[in-house]
Each structure stands twice: as structure tokens, then as C-alpha cells.
């Protein structure tokens, strides 16, 4: 190009001036004080950082993955997960914001809603959330929980007699899944052992496989597997709902019979039912997932911890032997007995801190929101994760160390321990999980001792944590004791 040509020089100047004008106009059009988006990268369309995040979960390096993002971008960063534009927040202040902000809705990614349900408590807001939460709390109120201790006690004893007694080795994780499923299916659906319970158990083994996965509804994908398992489980629960409704009409069931009966029985001031059939099914699904998967993980990892922690085991055994002294042969545990299991519950809380069953969840920005000087645009997802505070050494000194005394006189800032969430949406089943855990540990530590079969004591997160090989242990039965 010959820049000596006057016409070319004029054209170049005109182009330069036009670019300057466009830049100035763009800056002038910005609203004063408009907030920037958080730092970070969206990555590839649809996929974004999903594959890297899932790899970190499944290789048990997710805590490092989070820490690297915080070191690179700070406590607030943007990314794309599971096809959705997302902002990840970390720290106690961020947790409090997520749990209490009225500007954040609980809408999960569409992939999760298709699996778990559109009308379950985690999705609802405002009056609908208050109505459904109130219905679930009716089933979980203290005088109802007292009734469940004996039922849980019976299921635990039967389980140990059938699957543990007389065995030289057992694989703990699948057995804890079995135990918690049997407990929750009895209390939620009134299901005794039989074909229907077995079919539902098979479905729930796969319901969560694709909750946090790339949402590709294609053959052989985890997402497709979850959709099929969810649809099958939903059909079973819908059938149970119809049968329970008929039993209530015939006077063969009452509100206290099980969760489905309770939800179907609730009415407003005019006598109209509080929950639709879809809401009953969706919330039964969500309750089954919460009560089945999370408690089984806690129990399995407590058993894993106790195998190599003689001091904690000795303290726990002592606590339960003291409780047993006041019991007669064959007596079941009572609500009052559970109140004396303080050390066991501190150990359980510490286990939940180290290995939270729920790694994190999403919220949705209902409008443009400011947090920490950044804009979270309307419609974007907000991700919080439990390990971001659970494994923060400034909150929990020596965070990788198992230390139940942390929960004797807690000093961590509010919204640091978030195994059960927090705020108005704190887990409605938290007390139920406590009962389930304490009853199971009472009989386990008094009836058995065990050693790990695998020298490598590791676990992976395939959405939820899973110990190596399902945690096989060598089992030794103690001399018979009562109760």
C-alpha cells in the first residue's frame, strides 16, 4: 500500500477517528457506577468448565480445584457449569448471602429439575415454599420424631442380624445404602420388605448418577440413566400415593402412618388439600434422596474413621455402654437415650465437615444483584460449596485433621459449617438424620469391631463421596450384649 497517496491517508484518518468515536460513545453510554462481572472465563459453549469440575470431583481434588480458582480470581468468579452461566461464591459471608438473600431463588439447573422434580421443596419459593416446608415439618415435628426412634431401632437391629452377623468381611458403603433406604422407605411410604421396596431400591441406586453431569440425553450417558431411574421411581411413588389416599378414605391409615399419609392429610382452613398429587410425589422423591443418600455416606465414613482412630472409637464405645447399662434385655432406644449421645454426634458433625455428602448447590439470581463489588446478572446461577469454608485453615485450624472437639464449644464464624445448609432453608430433615445416625452407631460399636481391608484409605466423589472399593472391612463380632 502506498501511503503517499493522499486519498489513502484521508481514509486511514477517517477510520481511526471513527474507531475513537465508537469507543467514546460506548463509554458514554455506560450507566455511571455500573458494576463489572466477576473475573473468570466461561470456557467452551454449553460445556464450559463442567468436565474439569467433574474430573476434580471424581478424583477427589475438588477442594484444590476451588482453591485454585480462589487464588486466581478471588472469592467471586464466573464460569459455565452444566450449560449454565454461573457465579461461584466462597467464604462465610458468601454462604450467609446465599442462604438469606431474597434476591436468590432456589431453581436448580433444568437437568437437575428433570431428575428430582419441579414441585419439590428445593425448587419452590415464597408462599409455595412456606406451604410445603410447613407440611414436611408437620411430619418431622418432635412428637412425631419420638415415634420414629423405635421403628428405626427395629430396622437397624434387623439389618445387622441379616447382613453383618456371622460375616468375616462386609462392604460397608452398599450396606449403609441398604440400611438407610430401608429406614426411609418404611417411614416415608410405610413400605415393608417385599417386591415394591426392592424395585424402588434399584431405582434409587441410579437416580443421582446424572444430577451433576453434562445434560446430554443420549443413550449410555449418566444423565439418561438418571432420567430413567427417576421416571421409574416416580411411577412407584405415584402408585403408593394412590393406595395411601384410598387407605385414608377407608380409615386404614392416619396422618402419623408415614410421610405420604401425612402430606395427603393436610388441609387448609376450607378443607382443601394443601399439596397436590405432584407435590406429594416430588417431595417424597426429594425426601428419599436426602434421607437415603446423605445419611448412608455419613455412617460409612464414620465407620472408616473409627477403624484407624482408637481414641475416638474408645470414647464412643464408652458413651454407648453407659447408655446400655440402663436398658433391659430387648429394650429399644428412646428419645432420652439419644440426648446422651453427645460425643457421637460431635464426631458425626466433624465427619460431615471433612466429607460433606452434598458438595454444594445452586441458586438463581432473580434480578441483577451486587455482591462484593461485582454484578450477578438476572438469570445466572450462583454456586456455593461446603468445602470452601469446611477446609479453610483460617476457620478450622489443621482442617484435614479429624477433631470432634471442634463442635464441643464451636468458635467458627456463622455460616462456616454448612453440611445442612443454613438460613430459612436449612435442611428440614436434620434432626431425622441425627436420630438415624445415633441409633445405627449405638448398635454398630457395641456389637462389632472392624479393620480396613484396603491399605489405601481414599475416596472419590462421583457426585457424592464413595470410599475405595465401597469400604470392605474385616469384621469381628463382640460378645452378645443387650439391648
UniProtKB/TrEMBL annotation:
Keywords: Heme, Iron, Metal-binding, Monooxygenase, Oxidoreductase. Its cofactor is heme. PROSITE patterns: CYTOCHROME_P450. It comes from the Eukaryota. InterPro entries: Cyt_P450 (IPR001128), Cyt_P450_CS (IPR017972), Cyt_P450_E_grp-I (IPR002401), Cyt_P450_sf (IPR036396). GO terms for biological process: sterol metabolic process. GO terms for molecular function: heme binding; iron ion binding; monooxygenase activity; oxidoreductase activity, acting on paired donors, with incorporation or reduction of molecular oxygen. CDD domains: CYP90-like (cd11043). Heme binds at residue 427. Belongs to the cytochrome P450 family. This is Uncharacterized protein. The lineage of its organism: Eukaryota, Viridiplantae, Streptophyta, Embryophyta, Tracheophyta.
Amino acid at each position: 500500500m502506498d501511503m503517499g497517496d493522499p486519498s489513502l491517508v484521508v481514509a486511514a484518518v477517517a477510520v481511526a477517528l471513527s474507531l475513537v468515536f465508537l469507543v467514546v460513545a460506548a463509554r458514554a453510554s455506560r450507566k455511571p457506577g455500573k458494576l463489572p462481572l466477576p473475573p473468570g472465563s466461561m470456557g467452551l459453549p454449553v460445556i464450559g468448565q463442567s468436565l474439569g469440575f467433574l474430573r476434580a470431583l471424581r478424583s477427589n481434588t475438588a477442594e484444590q480445584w476451588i482453591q485454585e480458582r480462589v487464588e486466581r480470581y478471588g472469592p467471586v468468579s464466573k464460569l459455565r457449569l452444566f450449560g449454565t452461566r454461573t457465579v461461584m461464591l466462597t467464604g462465610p459471608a458468601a454462604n450467609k448471602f446465599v442462604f438469606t438473600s431474597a434476591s436468590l431463588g432456589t431453581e436448580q439447573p433444568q437437568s437437575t429439575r428433570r431428575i428430582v422434580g419441579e414441585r419439590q421443596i428445593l425448587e419452590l419459593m415464597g408462599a409455595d415454599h412456606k406451604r410445603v416446608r410447613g407440611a414436611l415439618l408437620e411430619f418431622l415435628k418432635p412428637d412425631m420424631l419420638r415415634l420414629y426412634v423405635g421403628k428405626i431401632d427395629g430396622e437397624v437391629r434387623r439389618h445387622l442380624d441379616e447382613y453383618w452377623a456371622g460375616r468375616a468381611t462386609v462392604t460397608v458403603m452398599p450396606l449403609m445404602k441398604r440400611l438407610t433406604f430401608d429406614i426411609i422407605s418404611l417411614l416415608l411410604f410405610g413400605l415393608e420388605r417385599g417386591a415394591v421396596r426392592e424395585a424402588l431400591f434399584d431405582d434409587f441406586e441410579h437416580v443421582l448418577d446424572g444430577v451433576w453431569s453434562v445434560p446430554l440425553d443420549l443413550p449410555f450417558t449418566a444423565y439418561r440413566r438418571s432420567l430413567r431411574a427417576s421416571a421409574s421411581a416416580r411411577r412407584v411413588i405415584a402408585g403408593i400415593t394412590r393406595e395411601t389416599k384410598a387407605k385414608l378414605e377407608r380409615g386404614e391409615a392416619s396422618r402419623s402412618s408415614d410421610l405420604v399419609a401425612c402430606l395427603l392429610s393436610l388441609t387448609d382452613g376450607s378443607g382443601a388439600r394443601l399439596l397436590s398429587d405432584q407435590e406429594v410425589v416430588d417431595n417424597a422423591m426429594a425426601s428419599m434422596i436426602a434421607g437415603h443418600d446423605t445419611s448412608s455416606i455419613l455412617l460409612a465414613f464414620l465407620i472408616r474413621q473409627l477403624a484407624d482412630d482408637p481414641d475416638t472409637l474408645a470414647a464412643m464405645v464408652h458413651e454407648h455402654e453407659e447408655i446400655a447399662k440402663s436398658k433391659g434385655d430387648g429394650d429399644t432406644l428412646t428419645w432420652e437415650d439419644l440426648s446422651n449421645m453427645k460425643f457421637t454426634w460431635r464426631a458425626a458433625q466433624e465427619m460431615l465437615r471433612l466429607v460433606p455428602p452434598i458438595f454444594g448447590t445452586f441458586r438463581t439470581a432473580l434480578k441483577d444483584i451486587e455482591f462484593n463489588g461485582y454484578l450477578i446478572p438476572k438469570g445466572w446461577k450462583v454456586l456455593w460449596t461446603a468445602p470452601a469454608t469446611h477446609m479453610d485453615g483460617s476457620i478450622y485450624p489443621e482442617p484435614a485433621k479429624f477433631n470432634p472437639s471442634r463442635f464441643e464449644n464451636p468458635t467458627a464464624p456463622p455460616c462456616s459449617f454448612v453440611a445442612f445448609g443454613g438460613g430459612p432453608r436449612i435442611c428440614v430433615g436434620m434432626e431425622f438424620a441425627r436420630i438415624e445416625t445415633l441409633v445405627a452407631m449405638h448398635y454398630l460399636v457395641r456389637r462389632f469391631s472392624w479393620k480396613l481391608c484396603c491399605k489405601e484409605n481414599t475416596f472419590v466423589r462421583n457426585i457424592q463421596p464413595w470410599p475405595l472399593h465401597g469400604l470392605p472391612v474385616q469384621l469381628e463380632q463382640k460378645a452378645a450384649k443387650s439391648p
